[in-house]
Structures are given as C-alpha cells and as structure tokens.
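Sequence in, structure out. Go.
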Amino acid sequence: MLKKLLKYDLKYMLKNMSVFYILTIFFALTTRLFFSLNQTIIIQVISQISVGIMYALIANTLINTLMRSWLRFRDSIYKDEAYLTHTLPVSKNNIYDSKFIQTLVFFIAGFMVIILALFIAYYTKERWQLLKEFINTITTGLDFKPVVFISGFLAVVFLELFNAIQCGFLGIILGHKKYQNKTAFSVLFGFVVYLVSQSLVLAMSYVVGLFNESIMNLFKFNYLVDTNAFKLLMILAIILYVVIIFITSIICKKELNKGVNVE
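Output:
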C-alpha cells in the first residue's frame, strides 16, 4: 500500500514541479545561446534577462520543493483530502514514509536540475579548467581531494535543507494539535524545531571539540589553525544531520500515531 500512496504523492509533486524543471532548463539553453552570439548591446541585455530568469527559476525550484512538500503533507493529512487518506488500509507510519520519500526524491531531482542548468549555461573548456584550478587551490590548502570536498559540501547543504523540510513536517503535526490558528502555530513550531536542530548540531560539535583540539580551535579562533579541523567538521556535520533527521522522523511518526484532527 505504501507504493500506491507514494505513487500518488510523486504524481502530485511531478505535476507541480515539472514546469519549474522545464523552464529552468529552457532558460539555461537560451542563456547559453545568447552568450554564444556576438555581444551587441541588445544581445547583452537579452542575455542578462535570460540569466536573471534562470537564477530566479533555480531559486523557485528549491523554494517550491520546500513549499509543495509542506502543502502536500498538510493537505493529505489534515485537509479535505485527509478523509480519503485516513480511510485507506495504511498505517500512519506509511503515510509519513510516503511523504518523506517523495520529498527526498524531488529534492534530489531539484538539485540535479540546478546543476544541469548551470552546466548548460556556463560550461566551456576554459571555464571548466578555471573552476578545477580554483577548487584545486582550495582543496590543496585544506588537504582535500576535490571530489571529496565537492561531495561533502553538497551533502552538508542538501542535508541542512532537507532537515528544514522535516522540521516543517513536525511543525505542521504539532501545530494541527491546536484548536485555533493552526497554520500560525505550525510555522512557529517548525521554526522552533529548526532552531533546536541547528543548536544541537552546534552543541554536539562543541562537545566533540572538548575531546578534539582541532575542532575546539574553530570555536576559539577566527582563522583556520588546523586544516584537518575543516575535514572533521564536514564529516561531523553530515553524521549529525543524518542522526537528527532520523530522530525527527521517529518523533513525527510518534506524534502522528497519537491521533489526527482533520479540519
């Protein structure tokens, strides 16, 4: 039953997000096209308009992934659609798992579309070489392999944003336990949960720093004393975010299983 529930969630997100994916790629192509033409004043103006729209769509791809995930979660569990959702022979855990997987799938898809759009718009052998040299300069100083550095950086950004989405899920669950101003309470609780999760990452990093001088130096100095500290901090952040996301999902399921008040 989870597969069927997930299928409907994925269809909903695809219907709402596909337009952003298509337009982002389209304006990446037009940006590439106009950049390749003779740069007259008119072409320069059109090029800047195209690249501006592309960046706006990139931002909207991320923002709408967050917003649509939250809306889908709220509408299918607490609004009119919830009457159908809760009559299905499926557990609250499966309902949450479906929303979790759906969000994960489209968050990954959004990241891939953004990377593809930037690649289409800007790739040349010269720029690629400059980018490689720039990354090599950074990673050499930090004693990182370029692939590891890029993968780690993207992983931290991805997990932090995904954590924000799940904090929103918990905020919606807690907010809809109230009898009035449910939306306002959902936003408030989601924001508080997010602040708590970020504080936990910082606090746990400090605790690790008590046993690791290189990590503690990041709290003491405004410059990098030990290059290994940056590497350790990145690994630590990834581990902590994964653990927090896992724990938050357990709390969300536990709160959902306490009961749902459909509007």
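Check: The first helix runs from residue 2 to 36. The chain is about 85% helix and 0% strand.
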